[in-house]
Amino acid sequence: MLRVVVLGAAAGGGVPQWNCGCPVCRTARTEHPELQSTQASIAISADGEHWFLINASPDLRQQLIATPQLHPVAGKLRHSPISGVILTNGEIDAVAGLLSMREGWPFTIYAHPRVLSILKDNSIFNVLSEKNVRRQPIELDRAFQPALPDGSPSGIEIEPFAVAGKAAWYLEGKPHPDGRPQNSGSDGGGDTLGLRIADKTTGKYFYFLAACAGITDDLKARLAGAPLIFFDGTVWRDDELIAAGLGNKTGQSMGHIAMSGENGAIGSLAGLDIARKIFLHINNSNPALLHDSAEREIAERAGWQIPADGTEITL
Ligand SMILES: [Zn+2]
């Protein structure tokens, strides 16, 4: 049985974002605190005892406090059910939480060499001593099983695959620490991964794509018929940050497709017989976060869900 807990569903900054007075952030601070959401991450387990995080958000400490499944077991002075962290990109909202896991509990970080090169290049991550925290490279299109603390297989099979995307924004205009140029190759070079996550025993599976800059026919074929997908829901429309006066970046320039529009997620993934569709990595500028918005209605009518933090799904 595969258990999935949504630790957070928001994009970088969370909801509300510390310095933002947009309608969603204002509402989340005042009359609708239930709109508050931490930055995107999920936790998965096949045995209910050992858990793996998909990305480690800057809100990890708060997420762990709020998630009983991830508390230390009773009777142990030092313990965590977390056996590993799988990183799908090197953005701050995917890796900064690692710094909150520096208190000497052993676990393994699984990431593409491109993302591992970013960790290596930033000496602050050395607080995770290699003695305790192993860094395990993962390859595109090669399934692996994250290991339990005793080295035995976890029963979870993860297949990483390339998704259209960009290198982390703080690397923009700078050489990539792995030495290869930015956006090298059509696959983005491993900077942005999608994951197929399966229970080895039952064969049940789902997809995780917290960042995706475009939906190709290949990706559609891959996702068709899936029981569950978590998909990039950063912006409602590509120019929404600019239109709202919140910034000068489009969704595309940040490596994210929009929910709406001809090439957006809702339209592109319609009719693919996906049983459950959940948006993740939703920016606070996105009006679909508001329960009574026209955009929310459109998303829900198309079968999409915007999850609350703590939502648990069993496959
Ligand atoms: Zn805001």
CATH C-level class is Alpha Beta
Query: Ranges with pLDDT <50 over ≥5 residues?
Result: none
| Coarse shape | globular
Give the biggest beta sheet: 7 strands, mixed
What is the count of DSSP helices, taking H or I runs of 4+ residues? 8
Number of separate strands:
13
Straight-line N-to-C gap = 6 Å
Instruction: Write the H/E string, N to C.
Output: EHEEHEHEHEEEEHEHHEHEE
Classify the secondary structure makeup into a structural class: alpha/beta
Small molecules (ligands, ions, cofactors) in the structure: zinc ion
**Cα-atom Rg, whole angstroms?**
18 Å
Give the amount of beta strand, in percent: 15-25%
CATH architecture: 4-Layer Sandwich
Helix content: 10-25%
Number of domains: 1
Assigned CATH superfamily: Ribonuclease Z/Hydroxyacylglutathione hydrolase-like
- Determine the mean pLDDT: 94
Q: CATH topology, anyone? A: Metallo-beta-lactamase, Chain A
- Report strand order across the widest sheet: 6-5-4-3-2-1-13
Any overview of this molecule?
This protein is α/β, with parallel strands linked by helices and 315 residues long. The chain has one domain: 4-Layer Sandwich (Metallo-beta-lactamase, Chain A), CATH 3.60.15. It has eight helices and 13 strands. It has helices at residues 23-29, 60-66, 92-95, 113-121, 217-223, 240-243, 265-268, 294-301; strands at 3-8, 41-45, 51-54, 82-86, 107-111, 133-137, 156-162, 193-199, 205-209, 229-232, 277-280, 304-305, 312-314. It has a seven-stranded mixed sheet. It has a six-stranded mixed sheet with strand order 7-8-9-10-11-12. α4 links the parallel β5 (107-111) and β6 (133-137). It starts with a strand and ends with a strand. The model has no long low-confidence stretch (mean pLDDT 94). Bound molecules: zinc ion.
